[in-house]
Design brief:
CATH superfamily of the largest domain: DD-peptidase/beta-lactamase superfamily
Distance between the termini: 75 Å
Order of helices and strands: HEHEEEHHHHHHEHHHHEHEEHEEEEEEH
Strand content: 5-15%
Structural class: alpha+beta
CATH architecture of the largest domain: 3-Layer(aba) Sandwich
Strand order of the largest sheet: 1-3-2-14-13-12-11
Helix content: 25-40%
Number of helices: 15
Largest sheet: 7 strands, antiparallel
Shape: globular
CATH class of the largest domain: Alpha Beta
Number of domains: 2
Number of strands: 14
């Protein structure tokens, strides 16, 4: 074969190989994209066109932030403008997340519990400036006679956890838990600063509600709020509803840096609050957790129901046309009790935090959007209830794949940012 023909043939073969490689790469990319598209969960529900950014952020949570199953709802001036859900209710991906799937929202439960106390205060049945012992005489033991009801609501009672070992079995015993709280001494001088009452908050505020009304907060909330307003939220979960519950999934393992930060944060006060007893997703998926009443941590609901409950505060005390609180009482909820570096959360949150009467203020951190007077509560692993009375906004976000942070999960923050971009 002449040299020029050989050269031409070689060029032809090289071009053919290049073309084949390009076609293969294109096919691989198309296959990868097809698999990626097929793995994306279907998003159901509705979203007003104005709030398209919220839908985009919700979809991004699944694509970029490892979401498994979740729902988000937003109301503006009492009207639902976003109500979306998608993904899977279980890690095996055998149960799609449905419209009525409920999730354990951990500390997002604290907002509805605070609502119970504010309803009683609004009716003149509870004085937030009265000693707790005025309603719960046994509570005056161990130097707590000066602890006020407002100190319970603002995590300033010095009772972030018990000093003696308190097992999971003990936690399920209401009378035992409240008796131990009444008998114990505070970790610090009550009223001087906050220390997150992770599990004890619900028993402390809840026992005051019970002493005043004869009802624990779950029953009181149902009688006064969720029943009349038709809100799908319970403290604990009735056995008959267990089939609707999403299965919580462990957060990703913390990095070495995060573990070191956590270790520095675990003072005796923090350990008492966060690890006495230690509760995680495995326990929260159990039948006994769901059947119990742990008012600081085992509320179950949809994003829609969280938005509706927090929406009572956003609506100046009204929900779905029914008045629950007076406007003055609804405003009092966000009365700041002072800012400080929380004794329990400590390095877990940047800078000082500012807590009101049962919920946290957005403040300089912007946890609940750019309005520093907006407020709300996060739940362990990511869930959130948000209130912005000035914008007339409430938001609920629930999920089952837990994140590693106590507050300001990136998925929640992406949704909050999208809401405010749309306003």
């Amino acid at each position: 074969m002449p040299a020029h023909e050989a050269q031409h043939e070689a060029q032809h073969e090289t071009q053919a190989e290049t073309q084949t490689e390009t076609q293969t790469e294109t096919q691989d990319a198309s296959l990868h994209e097809a698999r990626r598209e097929s793995s994306r969960p279907r998003i159901d529900g509705h979203c007003d066109a104005r709030f398209a950014a919220v839908r985009e952020a919700f979809e991004e949570n699944f694509r970029d932030r490892d979401e498994l199953g979740a729902a988000v709802a937003v109301t503006v001036d009492g009207k639902t403008v976003v109500d979306l859900w998608g993904g899977w209710a279980d890690p095996a991906r055998t149960r799609p997340w449905e419209r009525d799937t409920v999730a354990n929202v951990w500390s997002t439960t604290k907002g509805p519990v605070a609502l119970c106390a504010h309803i009683l205060a609004d009716r003149g049945l509870l004085d937030l400036d009265a000693p707790v012992a005025a309603y719960w005489p046994e509570f005056a033991a161990a130097g707590k006679e000066g602890v006020l009801v407002r100190h319970l609501l603002s995590h300033r009672a010095g009772l972030s956890g018990l000093r003696e070992r308190h097992s999971l079995d003990d936690l399920y015993d209401w009378e035992l838990t409240t008796a131990r709280l009444a008998a114990t001494e505070p970790w610090w001088e009550p009223g001087t600063r906050s220390g997150y009452h992770a599990l004890t908050y619900g028993f402390l505020v809840g026992e005051v509600v019970r002493r005043v009304t004869g009802l624990r907060p779950g029953a009181f909330l149902e009688r006064e709020v969720t029943g009349p307003l038709g809100i799908d939220f319970t403290i604990g979960l009735p056995v008959k509803e267990s089939g609707r519950a999403a299965e919580l999934v462990l957060p990703r393992p913390a990095s070495g840096t995060e573990q070191a930060t956590d270790a520095r944060r675990l003072t005796p006060v923090a350990l008492a609050a966060l690890a006495n007893p230690l509760v995680g997703p495995a326990e929260a998926n159990s039948a006994r957790w769901r059947a119990a009443e742990i008012p600081a941590a085992n509320g179950h609901g949809t994003a829609r129901s969280v938005a509706a409950l927090y929406g009572v505060f956003a609506g100046g005390g009204s929900g779905t046309g029914r008045r629950i609180l007076s406007p003055e009482a609804a405003e009092r909820v966000r009365e700041s009790q002072g800012s400080c570096r929380d004794l329990v959360l400590g390095a877990g949150l940047e800078g000082e935090t500012e807590i009101a009467l049962g919920l946290w203020l957005s403040g300089a951190q912007g946890s609940y959007g750019p309005n520093p007077r907006a407020f709300g509560h996060d739940g362990f692993g990511g869930s959130c209830g948000l209130v912005d009375p000035e914008a007339g906004v409430s938001l609920g976000y629930v999920m089952n794949r837990m994140g590693p942070r106590i507050a300001d999960d990136p998925r929640k923050m992406a949704l909050v940012d999208a809401v405010y971009r749309a306003l």
